Recover the amino acids of this structure.
């Protein structure tokens, strides 16, 4: 397992650096205005992708890890559900965007182009099979291949002086390449090729996953509502100033997501084999992730101005203060990612729903209060407080996990927890 995590982290680190460099170059090339318009399209489609995901990922991985003999049915049913959801979402977004095209034609067409990625999102289902088999490196290889190839395409297009619409089409290319890579690796890995679709399984999956889907949507509300409001209240340029530094702050999240994905099957099996060992493993994971987040967020907050000045240039000068604030959210995001494992294994999706509704409510209220006056700085502050609210809310909805999260924040308990 540790070798698997190390390999994935090394791969993820190299890929993240390459993509961050290309993303920064894109922001400098387009400028705050057009970069803000592109960011708006990506955020809108991201909201819709949370719906088309149907909250299935962790449930499908858990079921295939715990009942391998039923993997063909689980995989086929999940794929069918997400294919239907993706097609419907694409049609809906396209219709809405074109109806409002007269107000801002460029923004409307950017939404339509990026929305095409939803048609290929069901290919992610094959990555769930790799996770259940603890072959996460295979899924990472497919993702890396797609990301690196499209990063190269972005560089070529920027050098060629491409328009923002052409650059937006690279998101579609990336989705296609990722789906194809997963399929090829899946065939090589001798997966359950004859998948089956079961209405009974579909009902079972949706019954358990719908709170997680709503949780994912509400999570995006408090993670991305700031960008929608910035664009609406202050225009594309202010959104561009904000969106350009968000990738620096959120870069550590990808590392946390990889670690959680790697240990998910192991945690699921521990829950069945030994509740005592499972609880110790969860506490150790909470503590490790808190320490990592604390170190990473401190570094970003201290060197924010220098990083923005060097990477983005004069046009984005005021974004340094935004990054310094936004980076503080990592601590709460990391704890939330570990909590997602606890929620799935304890079969308590209602906790996720309560947690994210709390965060979403806090985010909407604070964004409405702070963004009109403070712009991007207000958005960053609201984001951090909303993330903290999701953890504090556990004191009422999930005291057991809140106790573990509080223990993870106490330095004098670290040695005992990590050595257990």
């Amino acid at each position: 397992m540790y070798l698997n995590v190390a390999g994935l982290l090394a791969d993820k680190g190299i890929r993240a650096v390459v993509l961050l460099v290309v993303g920064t170059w894109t922001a400098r090339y387009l400028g705050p205005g057009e970069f803000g318009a592109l960011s708006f399209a990506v955020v809108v489609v991201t909201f819709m992708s949370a719906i088309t995901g149907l909250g299935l990922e962790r449930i499908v991985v858990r079921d295939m890890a715990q009942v391998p003999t039923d993997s063909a049915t689980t995989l086929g049913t999940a794929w069918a559900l997400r294919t239907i959801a993706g097609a419907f979402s694409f049609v809906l977004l396209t219709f809405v965007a074109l109806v409002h095209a007269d107000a801002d034609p460029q923004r409307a067409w950017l939404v339509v182009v990026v929305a095409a990625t939803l048609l290929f999102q069901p290919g992610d289902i094959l990555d769930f099979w790799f996770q259940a088999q603890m072959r996460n490196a295979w899924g990472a290889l497919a993702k890396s291949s797609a990301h690196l190839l499209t990063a190269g395409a972005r560089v070529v297009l920027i050098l060629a002086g491409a328009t923002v619409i052409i650059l937006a089409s690279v998101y579609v290319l990336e989705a296609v390449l990722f789906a194809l890579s997963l399929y090829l690796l899946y065939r090589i890995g001798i997966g359950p090729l004859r998948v089956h679709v079961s209405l009974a399984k579909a009902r079972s999956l949706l019954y358990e996953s719908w709170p997680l889907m709503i949780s994912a949507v509400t999570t995006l509300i408090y993670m991305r509502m700031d960008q929608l409001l910035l664009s609406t209240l202050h225009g594309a340029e202010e959104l561009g100033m904000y969106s350009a530094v968000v990738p620096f702050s959120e870069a550590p999240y990808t590392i946390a997501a990889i670690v959680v994905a790697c240990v998910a099957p192991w945690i699921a099996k521990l829950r069945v084999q030994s509740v005592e060992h499972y609880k110790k493993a969860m506490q150790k994971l909470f503590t490790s992730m808190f320490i990592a987040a604390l170190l990473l967020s401190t570094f970003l907050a201290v060197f924010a101005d220098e990083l923005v000045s060097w990477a983005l240039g004069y046009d984005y000068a005021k974004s340094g203060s935004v990054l310094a604030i936004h980076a503080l959210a990592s601590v709460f995001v990391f704890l939330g990612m570990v909590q997602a494992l606890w929620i799935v294994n304890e079969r308590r999706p209602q906790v996720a729903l309560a947690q994210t509704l709390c965060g979403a409510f806090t985010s909407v209220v604070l964004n409405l209060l702070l963004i009109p006056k403070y712009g991007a700085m207000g958005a960053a502050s609201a984001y951090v407080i909303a993330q903290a609210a999701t953890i504090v809310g556990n004191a009422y909805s999930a005291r057991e996990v809140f106790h573990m999260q509080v223990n993870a924040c106490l330095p004098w308990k670290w040695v005992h927890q990590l050595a257990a």
